[in-house]
Amino acid sequence: MLAWPVRLTGSEERRRPYATGSSDQRFRATRPTSRHTAVVDRVGYAERRAYVVPSSLAELAGPAGGPVRLPPALAWTGRAEYDLDDDADRIVFYERVLVEATDVAALAALLNEELLRAYWGRLFLPAAVRRAWERRFAGLTSAA
Prior knowledge:
By secondary structure, the chain is α+β, with helices and mostly antiparallel strands. The protein is built from 6 helices and 8 strands; from the N terminus they run E-E-E-E-E-E-H-E-E-H-H-H-H-H. The N and C termini lie far apart (43 Å).
């Protein structure tokens, strides 16, 4: 069940939902900061989603250069072809694969261990993805 506290700002009203003992996992209520408002800590999709991480970086035997094509399951935004010899393309490709891969086989076929180590610090990843990989492979943290 959601409650809707009202916060008056001038003549406007703002309504913010917060969880009140419900099992709704989209919201985690915190204590109110004043008698009129409550702070809402929303847990986003990226934090709830399970990400795939291989058991060993040695499994990553993908191409180190040249043109590559994403499988249809990973190319949902429309762009499927990348040139791994181009730094910008390589970074976008690795970000896409790390976030969208649903099985270890896709990671192993598309990513290369040496390139992943070299570019890890330059990848813009959701915090949950970075955390999962760095927990499994402590060496990536120092590579960043």
